[in-house]
């Protein structure tokens, strides 16, 4: 984000953050926000009202630089009242949360158009965001909180956007995928964890937005290119 020009290096940037509605994503985005604020830049952290209310208190030296922008999560009939994060719904209902999340597009677009941040750092889920930001001349960065090995195992970006990945059952995920040339894989997680993480129904099922659940993984990355930055999460204390 920094320019090689010394005069521009001292410029305060305005960076917007837009994580997916899961605290396993929101907290790493908050840590990144703090890191950016520590460098003297302004941060606008976009999330739903209830999720923002559940965040830890900011350090006093950073609170003037981090502004929490509360978004109203659109009502989806199938979601329980006040359900605004994955922790609030059973796994099989997360696709309803994704539908509500997609409904945030007008509010996010309005914020970006009004505030014109220098950068927008986004998660895997808002596949529509890179195009919106590009249309407004805003620089984009995709922050992947997923370990690199899991991203590779999940599939190349182009494959997650279509049905070329034929894996459907749990057993399919216990053998090397076609794009990994290793003769075998060793799993550190028990089968139940694999089932929860790689639910074949969720990966193969169209969502209420009309896309497979895996689609945003590929689209959020590919649509930002060739002009988007890629940020890989390594390790941050929760």
Automatic annotation (TrEMBL):
The chain crosses the membrane at residues 12-32. GO terms for molecular function: UDP-glucosyltransferase activity. Keywords: Membrane, Transferase, Transmembrane, Transmembrane helix. SUPFAM superfamilies: UDP-Glycosyltransferase/glycogen phosphorylase (SSF53756). This is UDP-glucuronosyl/UDP-glucosyltransferase. The lineage of its organism: Eukaryota, Viridiplantae, Streptophyta, Embryophyta, Tracheophyta.
